[in-house]
């Protein structure tokens, strides 16, 4: 990857707009995810919704990806392709969504439970999401990329989970994947320093078992090597006045699920009205 591109306050506001469209798209999908729905149907709903918001799907055609959403159930880690097979009670489904608006990308992911899931998988989802906030909390002025990766890795490995190595978070802006790479593992005090104006897609991909992965012959789908479940949560975060500020939000998902949480409050802009 090339140089890190720092964003102005105006650019960050445009990026917030893109991130919020992705957030609303995932919120819309949250009400539609249930046993008996196909991932392809959800993909079409997302396409229409993004177009209605005056935005373009960010993944469709990117590196020749064929759909609007990456839909990765159960042992699939990321980059799953939507299809006709139906979700069933007890599945988990990781949905990753990108949009492009005003020349800037949003890129945001959540792993949903389909109906009731077993307690072990529920814990995987909770720990992975909590590790995302551990990472966000390490995105502070003068900290380094290794500090962020260490925070996520330490939080997940103490539970015995596997941290995927081959796929990483990234800078975000006028292109979907910018410098720097943001691994979900690392050593404290190592790597590039964080600077005001950086915008990162922070996205732990955490496996219940081994960190090792394999890829399907479709050239896209990444799944766990041992067939155990994997979870993926992603936020877009800007470094503003030395502190991490969320551009994306899970609040639309939580509204759809009738869940109340204050997890985002430490990182939310004071001026944001949802
Ligand atoms: Mg993503
Ligand atoms: Mg990403």
H/E element order: HHEEEEEHHEEEEEEEEEEH
Number of helices: 5
Please count the beta strands (DSSP E, at least 2 residues each): 15
Structural class: alpha+beta
Main beta sheet: 5 strands, antiparallel
Strand percent estimate: 15-25%
How many angstroms separate the termini?
34 Å
Number of domains: 1
Please tell me the CATH architecture by its name. Answer: Alpha-Beta Complex
Rg calc: 17 Å
Strand sequence of the main sheet, in spatial order?
Answer: 8-7-9-14-15
Bound ligands, each once: magnesium ion
Tell me the CATH superfamily. Answer: Creatinase/methionine aminopeptidase superfamily
Helix content: 25-40%
Outline type: globular
Low-confidence stretches: none
CATH class placement? Alpha Beta
Q: Looking at CATH, which topology would you report?
A: Creatine Amidinohydrolase
On the 0 to 100 scale, the average pLDDT is: 97
């Amino acid at each position: 990857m090339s140089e890190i591109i720092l964003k102005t306050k105006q650019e960050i506001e445009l990026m917030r707009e893109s991130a919020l469209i992705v957030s609303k798209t995932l919120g819309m999908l949250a009400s539609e995810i249930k046993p008996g729905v196909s991932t392809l149907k959800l993909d079409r709903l997302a396409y229409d919704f993004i177009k209605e918001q005056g935005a373009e799907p960010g993944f469709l055609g990117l590196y020749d990806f064929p759909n609007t959403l990456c839909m990765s159930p159960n042992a699939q880690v990321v980059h799953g392709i939507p299809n006709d097979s139906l979700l069933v009670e007890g599945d988990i489904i990781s949905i990753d969504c990108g949009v492009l608006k005003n020349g800037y990308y949003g890129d945001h992911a959540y792993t949903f439970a389909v109906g009731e899931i077993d307690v072990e998988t529920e814990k995987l989802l909770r720990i992975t999401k909590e590790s995302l906030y551990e990472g966000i909390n390490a995105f502070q002025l003068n900290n380094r990329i290794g500090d962020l990766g260490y925070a996520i890795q330490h939080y997940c490995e103490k539970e015995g989970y596997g941290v995927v190595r081959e796929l990483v978070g990234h800078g975000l802006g006028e292109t979907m994947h910018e410098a720097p790479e943001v691994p979900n593992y690392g050593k404290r005090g190592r790597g590039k320093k964080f600077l005001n104006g950086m915008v990162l897609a922070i996205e732990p991909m955490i496996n219940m078992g081994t960190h090792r992965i394999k890829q399907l012959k479709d050239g896209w789908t990444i799944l766990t090597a041992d067939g155990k479940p994997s979870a993926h949560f992603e936020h877009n975060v800007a470094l503003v006045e030395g502190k991490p500020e969320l551009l994306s939000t899970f609040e639309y998902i939580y509204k759809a699920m009738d869940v109340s949480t204050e997890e985002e409050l430490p990182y939310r802009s004071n001026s944001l009205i949802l």
